[in-house]
């Protein structure tokens, strides 16, 4: 047997556990802080003095997006409701602290399993994204993650790259990033039950796995949202089919049940929106599940009662709710925000006689990954090692800003950073030889962070480094300039708030000169006041042709903008990141930094 064939996830994990044994002593003092109610014990009693039940601790998180270092700006804060009803903002996140939190939580729990619900990689800061997220997979291995479901961002670089993250091997184009080291892949299984190959109909990865310990068996089924093709690049998922979440989970729950696995957890990369963004908001008020809305509320109601708990993600929200299953029994549904700012601690009481979860005993809570706790030294070392490799590129100055420019952290339809990006795209693609763009459209989901005035390293306040610009736009989407009629342009604006986007509008960020009114008192396409749509003061002519700049994701109809696929006369330009960096360099200096753009392009009626 070759050395490579012996290098299985199990053996790799064994090596890491042994190597880390000494390091775990550094958090020994923290083990005493075990979450209440998490220890195993005799809940119901059994025969001959043996306990009939044991408590299994399920630790979970989602939507890490390669945030190894603490996320900056508003993206790194968690809202917390205080006893007096006020809401405070708590700095949170960073894998050094996440590791400490999880290791502390496991203390005293002989039955502990750690799971994640997708988007662990993709749309990552430069520290991870520059190396195709190998650093994040390495960190997740060190976290002793047991199982993960795939999310839409696991498909950002395509199914072949996802398979490499699972199985290991150096990047097919860029090779090995560290001399003498081959990327080993994930120690944990990625689950993709509802993603199949069109030709064979078989899942591209394992649909489920079974966690076992001392006779306890818990099955995990992993799915991404059925709408993944609408929000990833078409090239990355060519030849794949994405199936209904409920149908898929129910199918494999029956299969697990036939195999004698009666305790089942679904890892679902789809989520909901709680009535409050505070992580400790009670979304079971006034009744079970009353405080949450969105896709997961309906999905939960359709999933077979054979499934005992749902770990969810995608919406980057925090909630712990009990939504009744189809039989009316309460069932826990959780999500731990994003970027490693929270983790969920769920206690599953396992009945050794029935091999099922005692649902009435299930408890769960989200916990902040606070930054006032000790850092995990192995994660600090990992970050330092990869930062050394990234430093020559990451620290390179690109431009200057005079204050924070909110992007991901803005809750308004029109975002200052969205305006800046759209303006950069128009400026870069307006010249005749670059496409002759007259306006630019930017999808809000492609803005992954804020630009923060305070220095993140030694570059100085106000300096935008390559690493910071990369964090804002990490996809390296190629820019397109296309022909759209005025009628198609109007339909594009209407598709922001209708069709698949009606329940959760996706408001495009527009370049300077395009103005219109968004009337939120109305519904569907009527929210766009057609007569108000103007370009440089002139009404949009439905019969006229306009040259429009956008990234390739939008040009392919992403985010529910199907009309954009009808474009003609496409010209492919530079990447979105290159266009953005060129704009920063040409339009800012240390003595004349860029100020946050005004948000006066979209007039909102509420």
Automatic annotation (TrEMBL):
Keyword list, A-Z: Hydrolase, Nucleotide-binding, Signal
Start and end residues of each 5'-Nucleotidase C-terminal domain: 405-566
Keyword Phosphoprotein: no
Coiled-coil stretches: none
Residue numbers spanned by region Disordered: 65-90
Polar residues composition-biased segments: 74-89
Signal peptide start and end residues: 1-38
Domain Calcineurin-like phosphoesterase residues, every copy: 61-317
One Pfam family from the record: 5_nucleotid_C
Listed PANTHER family: 5'-NUCLEOTIDASE, 5'-NUCLEOTIDASE-RELATED
Stated family: Belongs to the 5'-nucleotidase family.
Stated name of the protein: Bifunctional metallophosphatase/5'-nucleotidase
Species classification: Bacteria, Bacillati, Actinomycetota, Actinomycetes, Kitasatosporales
């Amino acid at each position: 047997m070759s050395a490579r064939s012996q290098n299985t996830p199990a053996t790799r994990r064994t090596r890491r556990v042994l190597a880390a044994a000494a390091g775990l002593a550094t958090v020994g003092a923290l083990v005493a802080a075990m979450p209440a109610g998490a220890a195993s014990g005799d809940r119901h009693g059994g025969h001959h003095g043996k306990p009939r039940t044991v408590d299994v601790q399920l630790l979970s998180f989602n939507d890490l997006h390669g945030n190894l270092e603490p996320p900056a700006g508003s993206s790194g804060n968690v809202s917390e409701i205080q006893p007096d009803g006020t809401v405070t903002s708590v700095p949170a996140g960073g894998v050094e602290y996440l590791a400490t939190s999880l290791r502390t939580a496991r203390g005293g729990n002989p039955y502990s399993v750690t799971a994640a619900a997708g988007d662990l990689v993709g749309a990552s800061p430069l520290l991870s994204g520059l190396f195709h997220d190998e650093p994040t997979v390495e960190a997740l291995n060190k976290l002793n993650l047991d199982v993960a479901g795939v999310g839409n961002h696991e498909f950002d670089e395509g199914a072949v790259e996802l398979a490499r993250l699972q199985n290991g091997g150096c990047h097919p184009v860029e090779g090995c990033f560290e001399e003498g080291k081959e990327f080993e892949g994930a120690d944990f299984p990625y689950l993709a039950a509802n993603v199949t190959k069109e030709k064979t109909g078989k899942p591209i990865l394992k649909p489920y796995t079974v966690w076992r310990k001392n006779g306890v068996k818990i099955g995990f089924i992993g799915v991404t949202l059925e709408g993944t093709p609408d929000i990833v690049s078409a090239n990355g998922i060519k030849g794949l089919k994405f199936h209904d979440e409920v149908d898929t989970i129910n199918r494999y729950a029956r299969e697990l049940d036939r195999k004698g696995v009666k305790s089942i957890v679904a890892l679902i990369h789809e989520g909901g929106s709680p009535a409050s963004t505070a992580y400790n908001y009670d979304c079971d008020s006034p009744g079970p599940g009353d405080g949450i809305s969105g896709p997961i509320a309906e999905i939960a109601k359709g999933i077979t009662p054979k499934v005992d708990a749902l770990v969810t993600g995608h919406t980057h929200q925090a909630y712990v709710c009990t939504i009744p299953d189809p039989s009316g029994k309460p069932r826990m549904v959780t999500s731990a925000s994003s970027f490693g700012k929270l983790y969920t601690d769920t206690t599953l009481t396992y009945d050794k006689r029935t091999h099922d979860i005692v649902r009435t005993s299930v408890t769960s809570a989200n916990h902040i990954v606070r930054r006032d706790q000790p850092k995990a030294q192995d994660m600090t070392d990992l970050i330092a090692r990869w930062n050394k490799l990234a430093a020559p590129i990451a620290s390179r100055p690109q431009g200057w800003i005079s204050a924070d420019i909110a992007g991901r952290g803005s809750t308004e339809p029109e975002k200052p950073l969205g305006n800046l990006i759209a303006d950069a795209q128009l400026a870069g693609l307006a010249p005749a030889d670059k496409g002759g763009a007259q306006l630019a459209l930017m999808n809000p989901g492609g803005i992954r962070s804020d630009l923060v005035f305070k220095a993140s390293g030694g570059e100085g306040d106000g300096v935008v480094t390559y690493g910071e610009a990369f964090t804002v736009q990490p996809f390296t989407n190629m820019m397109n300039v296309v022909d759209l009629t005025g009628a198609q342009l109007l339909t594009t604006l209407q598709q922001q708030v209708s069709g698949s986007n009606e329940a959760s509008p996706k408001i495009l960020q527009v370049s300077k000169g395009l103005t219109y009114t968004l009337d939120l008192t109305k519904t569907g396409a009527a929210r766009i006041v057609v007569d108000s749509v103007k370009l440089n003061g002139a009404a949009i002519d439905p019969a006229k042709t306009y040259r429009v700049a956008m990234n390739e994701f939008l040009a392919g109809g992403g985010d529910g903008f199907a009309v954009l696929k009808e474009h003609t006369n496409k010209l492919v330009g530079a990447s979105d990141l290159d266009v953005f960096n060129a704009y920063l360099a040409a339009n800012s200096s240390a003595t004349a930094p860029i100020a946050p753009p005004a948000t006066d392009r979209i007039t909102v009626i509420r």
